Amino acid sequence: MRSLTNRFRAKSARLDDRYSTAVIRQAAALCLHYPDEIFHSRVPLVRGALAQIGPRPAGALLTAFLDDVCAWPAAELAAHYVTVFDMRNRRSLYLSWWREGDTRRRGEALVTFKRIYREHGLEFTGEELPDFLPAVLEFAATGGPGPAAAGEALLGEHRPGIELLRFALLDVGTPYAGVLEAVCATLPGASPADRAQARALAHTGPPREDVGLDGYRARGVER
């Protein structure tokens, strides 16, 4: 029997939504990695996964991103990536930076990321720091319901920084802005509409204090 309202929907639909969100987050994670040979070799797999989940706004954003950047010369795209995601220009992919800046508190935040991964049976072994947005997206996309919920909680907790990065990328006019829009589309609720305030915060940036990562490394916590 079909419901006369939108109050109920089948479990399979909810599962489809969760699977589609996981695919979009995993695809976005790859899109936000440095565009090396591994990135280019995985593009067909990403396109195939996005095609499987059907027409969705976030998926269309990621497909458009791939259409755009894959037409660039590889060296030009790599140079563009390095320029765009430069913390000196207030465009960081490291989530704790947006909240803590280069302060002592950031070391504690990085430890928290690794602790959460371990609590869900996953050991962070990446070369980047554990708050690297692609790593958090991958954590939220893989490993079952527990990591998915914990990953979404991390993304929600750091959503202000993600939204500020989105606005900063829109200001630059880079194709990577579309990837951040896709990421934000997977989060509950609407994105902030006050672009002027978000831009002001993005340009002001987080607090700054030396030794932020020294304390993290001094405790013997590896990346």
Describe the structure.
- This protein has 223 residues and is mostly helical.
- The chain has one domain (11-218).
- It contains twelve helices and no strands.
For the structure shown, list the relevant keywords.
single chain, 223 residues, 12 helices, globular, disordered C terminus
Q: What order do the helices and strands come in, and which of them pair?
A:
Elements: H1 11-31, H2 37-52, H3 57-69, H4 74-84, H5 95-100, H6 104-119, H7 133-141, H8 145-157, H9 159-172, H10 176-185, H11 195-204, H12 212-218
Major sheet: none
Average pLDDT: 81
Return the structural class.
Answer: mainly alpha
Net shape: globular
Strand content: under 5%
Number of extended strands: 0
Oligomer: single chain
Give the uncertain stretches in residue-range form: 1-13, 207-223
Order of helices and strands: HHHHHHHHHHHH
Total helix count?
12
Could you give a quick summary of the protein structure above?
With 223 residues, the chain is an all-alpha fold. It is built from twelve helices and no strands.
